[in-house]
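thought: fold this chain, then report.
action: predict
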Amino acid sequence: MVSFEERIYELGRGALADQERQVAEVRGRGATLLAAGAVIASLLAKPVFHAGHPHGFWQVAGTVVGLLGCAGVLLFAVMLLRPYSLGFSVKTGATYRALWDQGILEQPMVDIALAEAFEERREQNAKVVKRLVWFLALALASLLLETIGLATAAALSS
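observation:
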């Protein structure tokens, strides 16, 4: 039977692993968003920018909204994909020395100390993870803005 301390250790390690999976999933969507933004722009660019178009207030407004959406997709995807200082493990050598220096050499204190280290690492990552999720939401909103703006301008120019 697993002891309480071992269970807490496993929960801490699992929570940190869940956070790592969440970051990988969110960041993995950045390339897809860039590709979708490029496809939308390439499909709608010709109808928007041909034969003197855009002209008139609504065509220009739709084009501007679409281009702002394009810029937003690019900006937020770059912010999503740029390197961040995140950690999803505990350095074993440093942890061993810290535990040795504190005189924590036996169970159950080793598991409790490691669980606290995992929790501390997760809390350090939390702000960046929230920021990444926010960038993903903004990139998705920008993709929607791009689609609506360019589709409106293309429809009005036909």
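thought: worth noting. Residues 4-157 form one domain.
final: tokens above.
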